[in-house]
Design a protein that fits this description.
two-stranded antiparallel sheet; signal recognition particle binding; Rossmann fold; Four Helix Bundle (Hemerythrin (Met), subunit A); receptor; GTPase activity
Length: 321
């Protein structure tokens, strides 16, 4: 029997959950919440990549609401999940293409190995299944594998892939693809890009050129710039966001490989620090393993032992209150 997406997310986050749960168990076994336990909890959260700011905010909330009371591990987990959901809720923004643009141009950026090309394929499949006409541009012209990978996805989802010769000018390719997408009435145009972060200046120049050249055809393009991050990189993801925000106007994040990391807490640190919309998360290689981000599902999956429906209700009631 196929697992639902929340079950796959929970399964994918199991390494993060286990690491967090083991540490919580060592601190909270029916004891009063005192300064020592709060200090230990803060250390646990920072070690789990939540980031110092988030950890401090969680501790302050616990200090105000539960200090001096006897708490169980389950109560701590439920309260922690609620705090995480509150941090993530403002950045939970599903990606919605503007169908009036024809095409809505999505520039996909990120370092090598984050899953940009696969993410484009999955998104093209998702929106193609909704009846939208999608096209893809193999703009990572320096990596033959990226071009081949995108062409495989194109064949799989029935979407044209525009590609050039190895080492071809990515900006010129994007320009021609945009012109073709416009002529053929495509709804979405996904543009893959190279990700050589070790040579920041060359990457910045190439991205700037792609954007500049596309604007010659459509001054509003690209309409979305999505940064793809690999969750397994932990705190390195923060530096990647900072660098790409310097290069281009990043409009949203897609976080991949949550199924292979014990560092799921990085999602919370990213939300707190940058307040960028998190559009989707990936928990595997299949097309259906990339889905809209849910603050409550992520919080419940990360902490474990928390009922996602109860958590969702509590967060909604607190917002309305």
């Amino acid at each position: 029997m196929a697992l639902g997406f929340f079950s796959r997310l929970k399964e994918g986050l199991s390494r993060s959950t286990q690491k967090l749960g083991t540490n919580l168990t060592s601190v909270f076994t029916k004891r009063r919440l005192d300064e020592e336990s709060l200090e230990q909890l803060e250390e646990i959260l920072i070690a789990a990549d939540f980031g110092p700011e988030v950890a401090e905010n969680v501790i302050e909330t616990f200090r105000k609401t539960r200090f001096g009371t006897e708490v169980s591990e389950k109560e701590i987990k439920d309260a922690l999940a609620k705090e995480i959901a509150k941090v993530l809720s403002p950045v939970t923004v599903p990606f919605k293409p503007n169908l009036e643009l024809k095409p809505h141009v999505v520039l996909m950026v990120g370092v090598n190995g984050t899953g940009k090309t696969t993410t484009i394929g999955k998104m093209a499949r998702f929106y193609g299944d909704q009846g939208l006409k999608t096209m893809m541009v193999a703009g990572d012209t320096f990596r033959a594998a990226a071009v081949e990978q995108l062409q495989i996805w194109g064949d799989r989802v029935g979407a044209p892939v525009i590609s050039g010769k190895p080492g071809a000018d990515a900006a010129g390719l994007a320009f021609e693809a945009l012109k073709r997408a416009k002529n053929e009435g495509a709804d979405l145009l996904f543009v893959d890009t190279a990700g050589r972060l070790h040579n920041k200046s060359a990457l910045m120049e190439e991205l700037a050129k792609i954007i500049r050249v596309m604007k010659k055809f459509d001054e509003t393009a690209p309409h979305s710039v999505l940064l793809v991050l690999d969750a397994t990189t932990g705190q390195n993801a923060i530096e990647q966001v900072r660098i790409f925000k310097e290069m281009v106007s990043v409009s949203g994040l897609v976080i991949t490989k949550l199924d292979g990391t014990a560092r799921g807490g990085i999602v919370i640190a990213l939300a707190q620090q940058f307040q960028l919309p998190i559009h989707a998360v990936g928990v595997g290689e299949k097309a259906e393993d990339l889905r809209d981000f849910s603050a409550e599902e992520f919080a419940a999956g990360l902490v474990g032992d928390t009922d996602v429906e109860v958590l969702t209700t509590e967060v909604i009631e607190e917002k309305e209150g």
